[in-house]
Amino acid sequence: MKIDIKIVLLIVFSFLFGIGVFRGIFPTLVFEAKMLLDIFNPGNSFLNQTNILLLIISHLLLISLLFLKPFRLYRTFLIIFPAVFLLFYCTNMLLFLLVAPGLFLYLIPFLIVWIIALSSRERQPSWM
């Protein structure tokens, strides 16, 4: 039985991220997990709850980029999905980013990987 390596890597990384969230290693993911748990707080407005849900959905769309490579619209998705994620991340974190500008540093690995993905995608032949 042949197992796709992408699925295995996704499962391994999801477990590592899950362990990292509980150990406090990934502060951005910890913040998203706390927001997701806080979504059912009766004090949250509908707009705030919707914004949190859209942030989580856009994060899942980023993960789905691994499986969208064979599609013709992959190049478009590679630009749109991360841009949507950044938009919702910044709207949810606006107050925290104003108080502690150092939180922008957590986005540097994300931006580096995005730039590498965009540049490597452009170098591949058109038939791939």
Strand content: under 5%
> What Rg do the Cα atoms give?
17 Å
| SS-based class | mainly alpha
Series of H and E elements: HHHHH
Mean pLDDT: 73
Name the overall outline.
Answer: globular
Transmembrane segments: 7-26, 46-68, 77-97, 103-120
Keywords: Membrane, Transmembrane, Transmembrane helix
Secondary-structure topology with pairs:
Elements: H1 5-23, H2 27-37, H3 46-64, H4 74-99, H5 108-123
In short:
Keywords: Membrane, Transmembrane, Transmembrane helix. The protein is mainly α and 128 residues long.
Would you write up a description of this structure?
The protein is mostly helical. It has one domain. The protein is built from 5 helices and no strands. It has helices spanning 5-23, 27-37, 46-64, 74-99, 108-123. α3 (46-64) packs across α4 (74-99). The radius of gyration is 17 Å and the shape is globular. The chain starts with a helix and ends in a 5-residue tail after the last helix.
List keywords for this structure.
single chain, 128 residues, mainly alpha, 5 helices, 71% helix, globular
